[in-house]
Hints:
Chains A, B: It comes from Pseudoxanthomonas composti. 2 copies of one chain form a homodimer. By secondary structure, chain A is α/β, with parallel strands linked by helices. Chain A folds into 2 domains: 3-223 and 399-408, Aldehyde Dehydrogenase, Chain A, domain 1; 228-360, Aldehyde Dehydrogenase, Chain A, domain 2, CATH 3.40.309.10. Chain A is built from 15 helices and 16 strands. In chain A, helix 2 (24-40) runs antiparallel to helix 5 and helix 5 runs parallel beside helix 6. Chain A starts with a helix and ends in an 8-residue tail after the last strand. The relative contact order of chain A is 0.13. At the A-B interface, helix 10, helix 15, strand 13 and strand 16 of A face helix 10, helix 15, strand 13 and strand 16 of B.
Amino acid sequence: MTDDIKRLALACKEAAQPLSQLSSQAKADLLQAMAAALEADGAAILAANAQDLQAAREGGLGSAMLDRLLLDDKRLAGMAAALREVASLPDPVGQVTREEVRPNGIRVRKVRVPLGVIAMIYEARPNVTADAAALCIKAGNGVILRGGKEAIHSNTAIAASLRRALRQAGLPEAAMTLVTDLRRETMLELLQLNDIVDLAIPRGGEGLIRFVAEHARVPVIKHYKGVCHLYVDADADLDLAVKLVVDGKVSRPSACNALETLLVHQDIAGAFLPLAAKALLARGVELRGDEACRVLVAEAKPATDEDYAAEFLDLVLAVRVVPDMASAIDHIRHYGSDHTEVIATRNDAHAATFIQSLRAAVVMVNASSRFSDGGELGLGAEIGISTTRLHSYGPMGLEALTVERFVVEGAGQTRVPIAID
Amino acid sequence: MTDDIKRLALACKEAAQPLSQLSSQAKADLLQAMAAALEADGAAILAANAQDLQAAREGGLGSAMLDRLLLDDKRLAGMAAALREVASLPDPVGQVTREEVRPNGIRVRKVRVPLGVIAMIYEARPNVTADAAALCIKAGNGVILRGGKEAIHSNTAIAASLRRALRQAGLPEAAMTLVTDLRRETMLELLQLNDIVDLAIPRGGEGLIRFVAEHARVPVIKHYKGVCHLYVDADADLDLAVKLVVDGKVSRPSACNALETLLVHQDIAGAFLPLAAKALLARGVELRGDEACRVLVAEAKPATDEDYAAEFLDLVLAVRVVPDMASAIDHIRHYGSDHTEVIATRNDAHAATFIQSLRAAVVMVNASSRFSDGGELGLGAEIGISTTRLHSYGPMGLEALTVERFVVEGAGQTRVPIAID
């Protein structure tokens, strides 16, 4: 049976209604039950995953893809633990963000409510099925999950397990709907349903995200890439700046919050670059620098314009020596991706100017770009990250899966006096 | 010369940068200067408006449209006063909405920043040119104004006046850009510029809004219509409920927050409907009711299904008697537009259930739907209203023209320990 995607989406919207009214305790209990269900169904889930892995090997998928696809006891335990962590987070629904009694006596509150129905579009990692469902449900939303075909058996088994927990909690399973018809035209249909789907969140490679953004009629929150910069100011603390560039580049090169380009003020380049290069080269980082950089660092290869625009996601770092902070800011405005930008400086005025002059979702002073992450920034969890400036900007937590609406209480106030005879 | 719309939009994005960095005082002074400029240029603006009016008359536009188009000394003074009111509002930019020091010592703040570039797409009212520009600028945004062709001379004169104030404040005029090439394909081009325009806000008839929503690649915040309901519960205060229905329907029938349908619990219909009908009929309201209503109110005409879905924007009210609150909620879910829904009741539990069961942007208890307005709800001003649940939901004030981003300050913290030898 092929999915009738509109029927599925409508059922999810219907099912989202009781979910939106659940108490915080009921949602926490539900997520605990989902974690237990995953553990109870571990054997079935791993068996389904084995099918996916075999198909992937036969399909000749690379080892990186196979690793993303792989589930084992440890990763299953990690999925269950993640569900329990989400269960323990504060419930954003019902939070009062603004309260005022107007001169006419009406009481006006802004109260967080769920967005409604969220469509998650993702690729090979089966754990996203559980992680994303947990966050959407915690915020009282229905969720439509459309994962990659490589993981279809794993996702189906995980979804079946989580849906059983919904059913046993007396909730409609449709609140969590896995799309099993993975034809591209079906995804296109889903992305057109702007009367049903309140938000689509694509997670994966730039190709997937661009496809979703190009074709969606529903609102999309996305980020394409992270071309993150560290600017080392003239009066930066040298050792501090070296630590930031090493952590930013080396601690997890494949992350979107890893550093891709180092900008150094010319007055400090002579002292800083040899130190930084030594630490980076010792950790296997390839440096691609401009003329001024290569005078100071013999090992640096020449940098091209493409290098300054690149998200390497690898142990490669572009380097440029700049005459002043304004040039660094211009460089970042030209090549940056509005993700995360960092300045190393001891000068508060320079830090303030750097922050004010850049549009990025996350701007940092004397801290590693690798902290640009929902968990590290205190959101508790991360459903995604936005580099577009509407609704949410930067790492997105549970609050980003809600919206504030107005609740007004009065005692018969009217806009004009009404005389009833 | 026809506009190169992309060039104009890019210039506006460039110009938005210095605007985004202005102090609150500088923005307030700028808006005061804009108000003074409008007053100083009053004669030129009225002369331009006279051209528009003459063309409109020659084009055979109706009197309602002519009235929307008309400017006179009183309306000019009103535009200037509106600018001064916006000048006096608190500045949302720079507001810290969240602050936390993480266990590792990094200080994380969420800070409001401007959205960037906002495109306003509107119809005949020339005052929107000044009102919308003022709100966008107050929130530090560049604004691209695309008004209706009926008002092109008025809009050009108003924009010239306001841009002079920008220039005299030492700011790039492009921060406020009026589109004078009103070809539809040019608007389409503008709506495709998702790398430049951060938000489009269409204001006008449902046709314009649907056109923008259908064709935009840029994010759009919209509301199509307001089909607002008053549900009179079994234990409502009768006089209070009569006042709410009269105010909701009569105080300004053409407003989107006016009542269109009255739902009455059957247990109170016999006592309430004759009272309400008397007050409404005395004010010239046409009633269209179901069978049960027409038994109680002889003057009521039969209501059709279309009547229950209609935004009359006129002295017409649809009426239905319902067996219980659940039926009222089902009716609203089916026919409502997620704008504003009101319950009249003395029963707190019923009020809570009504609020929780409805998705509307504004839900009210014992207050007139006509308070569903940015000014009345305490936002200070209103740039528009959203019935879609992303970014902003309901009346939108200055905050809705900003987004929160992360500002992080550290002392060299790294994600992993980094040893520098």
